[in-house]
Amino acid sequence: MEARNITFNLPADLIRQAKVYAAQHDTTVNALVRELLREKLNADRRARAAAKRLLELAQSGTLQSTVDPGSIRREELYERR
Q1: How far apart are CA 32 and CA 24, in angstroms?
Q2: Is residue 34 part of a domain?
Q3: What pLDDT shows up at residue 29?
Q4: Domain membership flag for residue 53
């Protein structure tokens, strides 16, 4: 994987806090930013995939039910598993 340098314009106080946090956790600000970006991008990807799957289920009718939820007995719910 090719690494590239980029420049951020961040408030001085935020940079100071990030440096302190990084030092306390034996890492670097660069590693923190990389990790946070990966986490954010992965979370967004998972959310889009879940939304897509939910729409597919809704369109296929899998989520549709003509049963009144109040008429289902607790025992039936456990039997369905």
Answers
A1: 12
A2: yes
A3: 96
A4: yes
Q: Supply the range of the domain harboring residue 24.
A: 12-62
CA distance 25 to 31: 11
- Give, rounded to a whole angstrom, the gap between the first and last alpha carbons of the chain: 45
- Residue 1 inside a domain? The answer is no
Tell me whether residue 81 is in a domain: no
Contact between 41 and 35 (Cβ < 8 Å): no
Q: Could you tell me how many residues make up the chain?
A: 81
The per-residue pLDDT for 10 is 95
| Tens digits of pLDDT across the chain (81 residues) | 798 999 999 999 999 999 999 999 999 999 999 999 999 999 888 888 888 888 887 777 655 566 676 777 777 767 655
In this structure, what token pair is assigned to residue 54? 């939910």
What is the Cα–Cα distance from 1 to 38, expressed in whole angstroms? 14
Block residue for tokens 């890492």: 27
Residue with tokens 């899998």: 62
